[in-house]
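Pinned message: reference record for Amidinotransferase
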Amino acid sequence: MCPPEHFTVDYVINPWMDTTVPVDAALAVKQWQLLHDTLTDLGHAVHVLDARPGLPDMVYAANGAFSVDGTVYGARFKHPQRSAEAAAHQLFYAGGPWTFADPVHVNEGEGDFAYLPGAYGGLILAGHGFRTEPAAHVEAQEVLGRPVISLKLVDPAFYHLDTALAALDDRHITYYPEAFSAMSQRVLRQLFPDAVIADRSDAEAFGLNLVSDGHHVILNTEATAMADKVRAAGYTPVHVELSELKRGGGSVKCAVAELRP
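Predicted structure (tokens):
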């Protein structure tokens, strides 16, 4: 995670950003800290990446890389406003037991990649259409040695995979079908017939931008209907208020890069 010490909305690179509405910087830090503490209280180790001036979106730490079994596929951001974030994430991984692969193709880390280690022997779901290039899916497969299923995103409101789909545990997902092309929906139905299906209101509440440890599903307080859906599926929802981070187009998952050593 990376604290929102420099978080603001000074530019627009997704439909959720509005430069005319000021960010409450103190509240953003308070809400981020609550998410951090919620994760540690649930027994998870949280590593903190230092925030850097001039990079207001660094708080969305999930976008900086994607790791599977000790190998890290780095990010290469589409928008120049975020490009310097990639080096900061690479430096973090250089200090640990990781094999780091510097990408050739544009991709935004866990923003557009999700991993299900128990599905089909280990499966990567990957989004494209707005941020990540389809060629990055091929590159990730070669780097990580896991099959990659390419999914086309078609609604600008859900510009990253992690706004439209989430892993609930090692084998199960939840997703909003209409965020994907018709053929991608068909693929998801075939691979995950027992998925938890979200609707547009769930997605607009950033209810799919969640983090799950297989038991607890951490999601923002606005996503009450989504909480009911995951509870009915056998998980325990845990709410965290992240209203300020939503101003930049992100929520729980965007703020958390999951490490898979």
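Pinned by admin. Summary line: The domain at 25-255 is CATH 3.75.10.10 (L-arginine/glycine Amidinotransferase; Chain A).
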